[in-house]
Amino acid sequence: MNIRSMSALTTTAVAWLWIVFAASHAFAQPAPDIEGVKAASKAFYAALAVIDNGAAMEKVWADKPYVTFVGPRSKSIIVGWDAQKNYWIKSNKLFLQRNATLQDQQIHVNGNLAWEMGQETADLKMADGSASKINNLVTNVYEKIDDRWFMVSHHA
Predict the structure, then answer these.
(1) What are the average pLDDT values for consecutive 10-residue runs of the chain, which has 156 residues?
(2) What pLDDT, on the 0 to 100 scale, is given for residue 53?
(3) pLDDT of amino acid 79
């Protein structure tokens, strides 16, 4: 093998190694951030089960004017924490019980933002005595604020 062939082979090998290394790290996400998002998601679904004046949700949502919510019964987008809090106060009066879980959770973290998608299922008991089950595809968006992940958008 001559020097020119060896140089071309070496250059090609280095280029492929760089591509493989870059691609493998392009999708790497810090494990603490993934775990933080999972904890925020778990806290959100635990807060859904609490039928109160919105205090449980206040602990898991970012208190920001840009947070958004579209639930299974929504007719419009709720924007901002103040509107959200009013929504939870009114909405919670409709329920006796609301237990929801998320399966097939797909999480991606990019800096201080993260999103998850999954299959949300819930058993509901309404204040009027009726009961139902829901099954929704959901997208949740989280923002890391002061080293803690908070929900900034929910769309079911």
Answers:
(1) 44 41 54 95 97 96 98 94 95 95 96 98 96 96 97 97
(2) 94
(3) 98
For residue 96, which of 124, 117, 76 has the smallest C-alpha distance?
124
Report pLDDT for 17.
39
Number of separate domains in the chain: 1
* DSSP-assigned letter for residue 129: S
Residue whose C-alpha is closest to residue 133's, from 141, 145, 142, 123: 123
**Cα–Cα distance, 103 to 121 (Å, whole number):** 8
Instruction: Please report the DSSP string for 27-87 in residue order.
Output: S---HHHHHHHHHHHHHHHHHHT--SSSHHHHTTB---TT-EEE-TT-SS-EESHHHHHHH
- Residues whose CB falls within 8 Å of the CB of residue 89, separated by 6 or more in sequence, listed in order: 53, 54
Q: Which domain holds residue 103?
A: 29-155
Q: Tell me the C-alpha to C-alpha distance, in Å, between residue 104 and each of 109, 113, 125.
A: 16, 20, 24
Distance of CA 57 to the CA centre of its chain: 15
pTM here is: 0.80
Residues in the chain: 156
- Identify whether 18 is part of a domain: no
